[in-house]
Amino acid sequence: MLEVRDLGIRFGGHTAVDAVSCQFAAGSLTAIVGPNGAGKTTFFNLISGQLKASTGSVWLNGQDLSGLGVSARTHAGLGRAFQLTNLFPNLTVLENVRLAVQATQDGAHRRGLNLWSIWSDHHALSDSAHALLHEVSLQDKADQPVSSLPHGDQRKLEVALLMALQPQVYMFDEPTAGMSADEAPVILELIRRLKADKSKIILLVEHKMNVVRELADRIIVLHNGQLVADGEPTEVMASPIVQEAYLGRSQPSQVAA
Q1: Contact status, residue 155 vs residue 187, Cβ threshold 8 Å
Q2: Does residue 19 come out as left (phi exceeding 0), alpha (psi in the -120 to 50 range) or beta?
Q3: Which residues lie closer than 8 Å to 8 by C-beta, 6 or more apart?
Q4: What pLDDT sits at residue 121?
């Protein structure tokens, strides 16, 4: 169980996320939607530790993660999709994924053993990295430098790195952004497969409502940093406050979340 309690952050006099509280259970995919500037990515940054919260706390399986940095939260089981700036552009695609695999697995590369053990361990890490590249359809580009990849392939590589961490919580921030119509289905199919693992929690920030309707078990809506709706996709998308946020229609004075 992932839980946020009264989570919020202020930048000067502006409240970007305003005391949001909600729980996310294993075996479900929750889409986080809202208009531009609603606080969705900031909310993600607070959960994963990229930003320090002004108020509230983040809990995973009963452990308070609030005082931990990004790396410690990752080891605790939070997996946030890598930003492009976190890729190593001068290394190959395979080397990038192998480094991510290496960071989560024990072996001779950690213990300084003899050269034969280190070689064998390196071979196993490479096999794991190749398997991940096959899953994101990048196996044919394993030896290319990351800097040579088009934007869509770099997004696929981000997902491979996230999968290498084997987290309990997968956090995807617009995973198909910048992808062509031919590239996006690969990522969406990966998310479907991850969703089938009922031990995982998946959070998805996405602007494409067709993707949200297809994948989400639940939708929460942020507007001006506040959680304004939370429920099943059909119910939430039909709510007056979502109509107001997306379509500019007038809303009633009270809306059930």
Answers
A1: yes
A2: left
A3: 15, 17, 18, 19, 20, 46, 53, 54, 55, 56, 225
A4: 65
8 Å CB contact between 102 and 125: yes
Name the residue with tokens 């492009």: 84
Distances (CA, A) of 201 to 3, 28, 79, 163, 222: 11, 6, 10, 13, 19
By the 8 A CB rule, do 78 and 170 touch?
no
pLDDT in tens, 111-143: 454 444 444 567 889 999 999 999 999 999 999
Residues 251 and 244 sit within 8 Å (Cβ to Cβ): yes
Residue 215: HSE in the Cβ half-sphere, 13 Å Cα cutoff: 28
Fold that domain 1-77+168-257 belongs to in CATH:
Rossmann fold (3.40.50)
> pLDDT tens digits for 142-165?
999 999 999 888 888 988 999 998
Q: Where are the domains of the chain?
A: 1-77+168-257, 86-166
Strand, coil or helix: 226:
strand
40, two tokens? 């969705």
- Would you say residue 224 has pLDDT above 80? yes
31-42 burial: b if 16+ Cβ within 10 Å, else e: bbbbbeebbbbb
Bridge partners of 31?
204, 219
Q: Which two tokens stand for residue 223?
A: 């507007």
